[in-house]
Amino acid sequence: MHSAQELVSQIQALTSLPSVYTRIREVIDAPDGSLTEVSEVIGADPALAARLLKVVNSALYGYGGKIDSLHRAVTLLGLQQVHDMVLAMSLGSVFAGMHPSHMDMTRFWRDSVMRGIAAREIARLSDQPTAERMLVVGLLADIGHLVMYQTVPQLADEARTHAEASGRSLAESERDIVGCDFAEVGAALCAQWQLPACFAEIVGAQLNPRLAGEFALEASMVLIADRIVEAERNGETSEDAAQSISPAIWAAIGLRADSFGEMRAAVELNLTAYLQILFSGLRGS
């Protein structure tokens, strides 16, 4: 049996975040950190700078393609959103060298982007100021499975097979067979990376949002976002998928079950655009 911390420690050398992200975190956390200094750090990485300008000028952000200054882009997005976008754009490169057995990486990242878009849309419909942050939280929500399939692929696959055959939840089967579930592993990786504390709290409690404490609302959003991804993968109707979610979860986010279809439509509408921005190698998937 394995602990989440043990699995994360096995891939620690393979999952260091890019130095440009680390430097941005240092600037943002510094008492005298500034938008200008963040702009300079990003500007030293031409590829990252180009991608950030592409984000700001995309239809997703509504600036009409008029932003040609990196400093202006950083100013418009703000420090937290710049941090989150750089983190989101870094994930693909961090795991680029991994080819876990039993895992379709194209499908994994496509589903992860779908989950991120869904979490962002749920937060937006709920009038939460965390909407943009929820994009990257959604991207990270299933990262524990990538760690598990890289470190203990046979056990992870056995857990999935057992869950499908028995009707038990995947997380339950993972805890019985691996020793921990994907949410625990994802939270451990967020902690290992020293991301803002809310990331580990939300990712770790996505299966039981009440455990997230002050971040229970965000964890509830991730739970619903994951059901949107599952519904798309399994060909479920929005009505059936929505009804499988506890009324308490809907009440927690202040939305009705019949909003599920609207959320799902937003994911389908924006998926290609986000794939191009975050994971260009998956374009057209």
Automatic annotation (TrEMBL):
Residues 14-209 form the HDOD domain. InterPro entries: HDOD, RNase_Y/CdgJ. Gene3D superfamilies: Hypothetical protein af1432 (1.10.3210.10). It holds the Pfam family HDOD. PANTHER family: PTHR33525, RIBONUCLEASE Y. This is HDOD domain-containing protein. It comes from Azoarcus taiwanensis. The lineage of its organism: Bacteria, Pseudomonadati, Pseudomonadota, Betaproteobacteria, Rhodocyclales.
